[in-house]
């Protein structure tokens, strides 16, 4: 049967691919982002934040993130995985409100990676793309595993949406292409994308449902009649675009101390926007509940007086 050889979690914020000297592009975005009340955020931001907003701190945080992403890539290479099952969210890249599944698995034969998809044209996007590795136009998947997972998860009472085509002008979503663009530059390991609707109400799964889903994903993989080595990857999070260190600490407590009940108590009203991607980590925690957490790094990349930025998380279980 197939063997799970590694579980890893990584943030995928654009800030990870934009060097510290260019974080001002993101500051400008935050100041004009219609989803944010920037003046109100400045008023409620924690005291002493100015100490985080220096060129020296920016550089220090940026270097810490670069090292952490590299560490994850090294761990994945050492694991010699034959396929990576990626738990990520779809941000209107494949699905829209006319059809927004809670859980979806892609079982097509390949995934396209489109460098310039013009989905969110902005000045900071140019800076982000400079931080990406060169990628192929297409990568192999593992349809046999994907289809086995669909059947096994349906048998486990999860209602799974399946799809075998992706929007060609968009390609596979950013939560998934991050594997090739940053974690494993130059790598060609096949992928199975598992899309979790963390972002869009009203049908987001609860933290407990995500944890149970992760357990079922593990059981599905381990029941696959194959000798292949499988890695799991949670993509996204932790809190952003407004950093919420209290939520991040809750997540870390649940992960580091194997306390699923803490993860179940994550307040859903605070799992909004990018912070909702924490649910991908909760699913990974369910999958890796019997494994040892070998590595965890947490870096707060504050970039404005409004406490915008990302609580970056990097971890692996073996």
Fold and architecture overview:
The protein is an alpha/beta fold and 318 residues long. Helices cover 36% and strands 17% of the residues. The chain has ten helices and ten strands. The protein has helices spanning 24-32, 38-44, 55-79, 123-130, 143-155, 174-183, 207-222, 245-256, 260-264, 278-287, and strands spanning 3-10, 83-88, 103-106, 110-112, 138-140, 161-163, 191-196, 229-235, 293-300, 311-317. The strands form two sheets. It has an eight-stranded mixed sheet with strand order 6-3-7-2-8-1-10-9, with helices on both faces. Strands 4-5 form a two-stranded antiparallel ribbon. Helix 5 (143-155) crosses helix 7 (207-222) and helix 7 (207-222) packs across helix 10 (278-287). The two termini are 18 Å apart.
Radius of gyration, CA atoms, in whole angstroms: 18 Å
* Global morphology: globular
Helix run count: 10
Strand line-up in the sheet with most strands: 6-3-7-2-8-1-10-9
Give average pLDDT, whole number.
96
Strand content: 15-25%
Rounded to the nearest angstrom, the distance between the terminal CA atoms is 18 Å
Q: What string, H for helix and E for strand, traces the elements in order?
A: EHHHEEEHEHEHEHEHHHEE
The major β-sheet equals: 8 strands, mixed
Give start-end ranges of low-pLDDT stretches.
Answer: none
